[in-house]
Design a protein that fits this description.
Structural class: alpha+beta
Helix content: 25-40%
CATH topology of the largest domain: Alpha-Beta Plaits
Order of helices and strands: EHEEHHEHEEHHEHEHHHHHEHEEHEH
Strand content: 15-25%
Largest sheet: 5 strands, mixed
Shape: globular
CATH class of the largest domain: Alpha Beta
Number of domains: 3
Length: 416
């Protein structure tokens, strides 16, 4: 059986690196990209900023304290997405089996390509050189027989390097790492394992299965397999979206119903545009919010609440999503201020795959479909901000996201 060869390619400080490439005055200076408001979140930090302890997912306010002389930028998602598309085109020149995890990282299955492309070290060298030559950006790469080890190796190779972990070296590579290097082990599970005497991945690999099951439930058995380097997950090119959502964190706590409704409208229309672009419709609408009161320390200390409703027929109409979002907002009976609100959809079906309606489309529905198509064409030609509903407010996001949600693509301005 041919040994698997999995590469994990991860761009170095992607958003910040794009800004430094395009703006020479920023090179060599600490650059932080993300939300710039009082509740903003860092999406990317240049390596100059990281020297001061600034990192992604950190509150912008803390980043300003640690590095007050940094350049803080809101960022340009359309530009970053265009760069991502260039990167993925390069990746697919080396193998069609590319699984994107985010705009700036992907798994590449190179199994069986050695006869055509050469050994992994040569393939990785060519890939990294092409990325540098065609985009002016640096990519770090890890190569291993399993996905988890390849991802850990790429992180260890940063910045601008690469590491190969052959099958015979997997255990030697993993054993000294801290337990949190294993996928899925977060702060809570990591602390629980630490109290039980498990400090390294090697400790987990040598543990009795019953002991890990007692600590982590049935999931503990999977953790033990990963600790031994047993990861059977395949590289999966994109499948269809399973959900879409838009949300924002307000600059100040919001109690005013009008501001909440305006935010729901903005998000409903945005999600609807993404549905239409993906040629999908949604059966379920989700409203989510975080109250202003902190329930626990740390960034996850604000409780997330959701309400949802399933529609009699799937839709891609923003007005329908907005109407249902308002009903959910009313049903929530919010009595305290809100710091975050969002609208999402799930239970998606293709526009040609849904069950036919029992009723003919009403003239009002047909008119809205024509209006939506016209608005989409205007935005595609002149940009996202070219036209908006007059009663739609601005939706401020805490930070830009690198995550790809099952095939979702951020909206881009398209030229004619």
């Amino acid at each position: 059986m041919t040994p698997r060869v999995i590469a994990h390619a991860d761009m170095d400080a992607f958003y910040a690196s794009v800004e430094q490439r395009d703006r020479p005055e920023l090179r060599g200076r600490p650059v932080v990209v993300g939300g710039t408001g009082t509740r903003g979140v860092v999406s990317a930090a240049s390596y100059e900023a990281r020297e001061f302890g600034v990192h992604s997912a950190m509150p912008t306010a803390l980043a300003r304290q640690r590095c007050p002389h940094a350049i803080f930028l809101r960022g340009d998602m359309a530009r970053y997405t265009r760069e991502s598309q260039r990167l993925f085109a390069i990746f697919r020149d080396f193998t069609p089996a590319v699984e994107g995890l985010s705009l700036d990282e992907a798994f590449l299955d190179l199994t069986g390509t050695q006869r055509l492309l050469g050994p992994p070290r040569e393939v990785v060298a060519r890939l990294r050189r092409r990325v540098r030559d065609e985009t002016g950006l640096a990519v770090s790469v890890g190569v291993a027989p399993v996905k988890m080890v390849a991802k850990i190796a790429s992180a260890a190779a940063k910045p601008d390097g690469w590491i190969e972990v052959p099958p015979t070296e997997v255990r030697r590579f993993l054993d000294p790492l801290p337990v949190r290097a294993i996928w899925g082990i977060g702060p809570v599970a990591g602390e629980r394992l630490g109290r039980a005497g498990f400090a390294t991945v090697g400790d987990l690999a040598r543990a009795r299965a019953e002991r890990l099951r007692d600590l982590l439930g049935d999931w503990g058995l999977g953790v033990a397999r990963l600790a031994r380097g047993d990861d059977l997950r395949e590289v999966e090119p994109y499948r269809g979206s399973i959900s879409m959502s838009e949300e924002n964190t307000f600059g100040d706590d919001v109690r005013d119903r009008g501001r909440l409704e305006a935010a729901v409208l903005v998000h409903a229309e945005s999600v609807a545009r993404r549905l239409r672009r993906a040629e999908q419709r949604a059966r379920t609408v989700v409203l989510k919010w975080r109250p202003a009161e902190r329930r626990a320390p740390g960034p996850r200390g604000y409780a997330l609440h959701t309400r949802r409703v399933t529609l009699p027929e799937p839709t891609d109409d923003g007005q329908v999503l907005y109407r249902e979002g308002l009903r959910l907002l009313t049903a929530a009976q919010l009595e305290e201020p809100v710091r975050l609100i969002g609208v999402g959809v799930t239970n998606l079906v293709g526009t040609g795959k849904g069950q036919l309606s029992l009723f003919e489309a009403t003239p009002d529905a047909e008119e809205r479909q024509r209006l939506n198509r016209a608005l989409d064409e205007i935005r595609d030609r002149f940009g996202h901000a070219a036209i908006a509903r007059g009663d739609a407010g601005a939706a401020e996001r805490a930070g830009l996201s690198l995550q790809i949600k099952r095939g979702e693509e951020p909206e881009l301005p398209r030229s004619s």
